[in-house]
């Protein structure tokens, strides 16, 4: 075996055991960790995208890689790399990344998958990976095979996470724009008929309409899209009000756009036309959070595209829409199966070591990792929902005392949700859950005023980057700056 073949085997296996699994946290079919490494044997684009992501993940932790599968007396050769701590994995990642992008551009051009409309804005006209705004596309041919399209989409999703890994915001946005455009045009080609609620209920949750690859890629892009919009305080690229596209990818939505309730008495892995499995229940929260993020950014489609939509909107209209979102979250939560309940919980107890976090927070553990992460996102969504509630009125209906009590109750609720977020992280979930805990922990940290609690949040955030390599320091710095401003303001008041 040549050195290059050995390195490929090493990185492919690491992708399946680590970075690929991180992408599969909310997918019971584990497409990226199970299927992509096999497809990469015959597809250079997928191979180089995988190698780039794996190498970059190693570079972020100086070549350290955990031993998978528990304690062993002997590891396989392909699990080890000579002097891995001395290897410039970041340089290797850049080389693989350049080859992957080059192959992606060639594949798009050769397959004539899509070209920009004549009235689209400027930028790279070959693929839609433009860092200014996503373009609209028209079809130019049908000579691209469906499998080739799926592989293009999968590679695009991997390259998106490649940029998200170290917080490369501009490049991440550029790849998300391109991935979203590819996804839209691929769906227009394969699904010319738009689904209604009755279609959705009549087709076994419509999961047969799209391939395993397309489903996995869509939800990866949708989740990254929601997080990008939250981090950058913008709207999502995917239209949360276009119910048909979300139905195509498995959500059970009625004609009013509400998630159809699951039977909360059913336990793991429900089946049937009227049920969503655990992974789709998790993904349905992504859609709801996308609606919330859009409301936070612009008031959700109450104005013209690209303009501030708060101006001229009646306060009652905003409050009514907020209440609709709140009701949707409540219905989602009330219909959760028991797999979304903690499997074990240890309440705060006296610390045996100085600085031990257990004296401040509970430890919460879920037997299904995707459920642990989803509940962290749920608690995060409730904090954001409470903090972005429009006032009941500006005068007349309430007095200062009533409003102050309302603020205090909101703060107490947000702190309760914050402690649940921190408690789940203190339960030491697996790496994939820890990666997805970054934005919930950042949200929780903004609600906590105790110095000890703040240190716990910072330690958890920085531990993710130290142990796994996923960028968190930008959020830690933002928290410190916000706490400093808040403490300075309080000092001025007193």
Automatic annotation (TrEMBL):
InterPro entries: Fun_TF. It is found in: Nucleus. One of its GO terms (molecular function) is DNA-binding transcription factor activity. The keyword Metal-binding does not apply. GO terms for cellular component: nucleus. GO terms for biological process: positive regulation of transcription by RNA polymerase II. This is Uncharacterized protein. The lineage of its organism: Eukaryota, Fungi, Dikarya, Ascomycota, Pezizomycotina.
